[in-house]
Amino acid sequence: MKQSHRFATVALAAVVGTGLAGEGAAMAAVPPEPTVASAPAAPAAQQVAIYQYATGVVISRHRLAIRTRPTMRSKRVGFLRPGQRFKIKCWTRGQRVRHTRVWYRLGYSSPKNYVSGAYVRVIKGRVRHC
User: Fold this and answer.
1) How many domains are contained in the chain?
2) Strand pairing partners for 85?
3) Which of 1, 69, 80, 122 is deepest in the core (most CB within 10 A)?
4) CA Rg value for the chain
């Protein structure tokens, strides 16, 4: 702490806390400055940001097929209901559906499962490229 700031802190503590009782009492009220050894910094490996998956919603009027690859000819492994919310891990290019080549990979799934981006709206977060 700079000397001028310490003096202002001591003077303010003396006036407010002890009522001009003396400089010795005011110096006792000032806490000691922290040392570098008492507050170690965390290693850089522990300061990793956790990626939060984006959230999408199905905007089609019919159920949306979940596929093993980003193509219409790949195997269907499930369906999403209209209005259903789901986690999106990332996006990739695939077969064109309606007006877009974007396909979203579902988050929190061990196999690679995809849905067409033509029938999905991202409502929360930002989707990264796969």
Assistant:
1) 2
2) 57
3) 80
4) 30
The number of angstroms, rounded, from the C-alpha of 81 to the middle of its chain's C-alpha atoms is 27
| Number of residues assigned to the chain | 130
Cα Dmax for the chain: 87
At 54, is the secondary structure helix, strand, or coil?
Answer: strand
What are 78-107's pLDDT values in tens digits? Answer: 999 999 999 999 999 999 999 999 999 998
How far is residue 34 from each of residues 5, 8, 10, 40, 43, measured CA to CA in Å? 16, 19, 17, 11, 20
* CATH code of the domain containing 85: 2.30.30.40
Contacts of 114 (CB under 8 A, 6+ apart): 66, 67, 68, 69, 70, 74, 92, 94, 103, 104, 105, 106
